[in-house]
Amino acid sequence: MNAEALSAAPILTVAGAVHAYGGRPVLRGVDLALGRGEIYALLGPNGAGKTTLIRTLCGRIRPDGGTVRLNGRDPARVAAARAGLGLVPQEIALYANLTVGENLRTFAALAGMPHRQIAAAVERALALTRTADRAGVPVKHLSGGYQRRANIAAAIVHAPSLLILDEPTVGVDIDAREAVDAVIRGLRDLGVAILLTTHDLDQAEALADRVGFLREGRMVLEGEPKALLAEAFGTQMEVLVHLSGTPDAAAEAQLAAEGLARTRQPSVWTRLDADGYAVAGTLDRRLRQVGLAPREIRVRQPSLANLFTRLAEQEPAA
Ligand SMILES: Nc1ncnc2c1ncn2[C@@H]1O[C@H](COP(=O)(O)OP(=O)(O)OP(=O)(O)O)[C@@H](O)[C@H]1O
Ligand SMILES: [Mg+2]
Fold first, then answer.
1. SS3 letters for 236-301?
2. Which of the two ends of the chain, N or C, has the fewest CB atoms closer than 10 A to its terminal CB?
3. Domains plus CATH for the chain?
4. Rounded distance from Cα 49 to ligand 2 centre (Å)
5. Segment 22-67, tens digit of pLDDT
């Protein structure tokens, strides 16, 4: 985030947002502020309340308590406030039989844009999302990556100051993901405030100026990825041990005795230590002695995935 963004009034502010579904609290007092040209990644386990918070920001849910202001106005009460917002839903929300250009003209008209401004707005959205070379192609004939970017184009054709993306790259391959990330960065550089949810922590770490961890309706940690990692882990390194197969119960006990914890992959085990390289050497020798020769050992800086695991393991505050 640059100095200009810091000094400018925030585009979005949420203060003490509270919401319950049928008496069950889902948002328990969420604060959030987002400035011009800032990318914010909202993280948290399934059911944490991320989509509920987004629906609150879009004015689709009026919170039971607290305030939401988009460019100073309440999106749940002031329809004009919602014009400042573009939403990219998780599912592709385009007319499959229409071309990309026809879709964008339709979305611009639906946003209430005057007829004479539509052609230029469509050109701009195509350029910003790098979809101009497919403008004449029906959406149903596009690759997954182009569909994702066309979905973003539809959300920005009316030039919103805040763009919200719910899981923008779920289920797309790495090349398409990088293309989507590049589009998001380009919009950020133009001053658009960007809020995205993702379960891809590597994407969040690479893309976001700030991240927030939502858990059971509370923001439990927020900040710049690098600063959060430095605070949580200091000079510790992560040692990742790749085994050649899935360990049996006895082998698992031996790995645990070496201070290693299972990752999501049963054949990959992890440990944090300030002296990561020395630990890697010791682990290699000791695991070989018990017949668990590692296929590979990597030493790397801790990532948001390590932080996320640590937060998930902590007891939620009462
Ligand atoms: N319309 C609804 N009515 C009742 N309960 C709901 C409704 N929508 C969501 N919930 C519940 O509210 C909680 C928060 O849901 P939400 O969809 O906001 O979570 P999320 O963080 O977006 O999760 P995910 O990562 O799975 O998308 C969940 O327990 C969910 O079951
Ligand atoms: Mg969700």
1. CEEEEEECCCCCCHHHHHHHHHCCCEECCCCCEEEEEECCHHHHHHHHHHHHHHCCCCCCEEEEEC
2. C
3. 3-230 (3.40.50.300), 237-301 (3.30.70)
4. 7
5. 999 999 999 999 999 999 999 999 999 999 999 999 999 999 999 9
